[in-house]
Design brief:
With about 80 residues, the protein is mainly alpha-helical. It has 3 helices and 2 strands; from the N terminus they run H-E-H-E-H.
């Protein structure tokens, strides 16, 4: 939490669990939002971001509908 509050973290990936809203994950997600840190709550979204960042390093960028990420062949998205 200290790293979040001190703005030393740029991205949080934390998937919610169901049940008590005051669990650690809830507090981490809320603190991230309140401090302006990007918070991803889906592993699919995190994977799509990683794929995008990897592609940007090779100079092959394209826009892909995130809902089709599992059905698109790698060569059609510039990988």
């Amino acid at each position: 939490m200290d790293l979040l509050l001190e703005h030393q973290i740029d991205l949080v990936v934390d998937t919610p669990t169901y049940g008590d809203k005051m669990k650690d994950g809830f507090i981490i997600r809320r603190t991230a939002i309140e401090t302006g840190v990007t918070c991803l709550t889906s592993l699919d979204t995190a994977a799509a971001l990683l794929t995008s960042l990897e592609s940007s390093e090779t100079g092959h960028l394209s826009v892909v509908d995130i809902t089709s990420i599992n059905t698109v062949k790698p060569d059609t998205i510039g990988i």
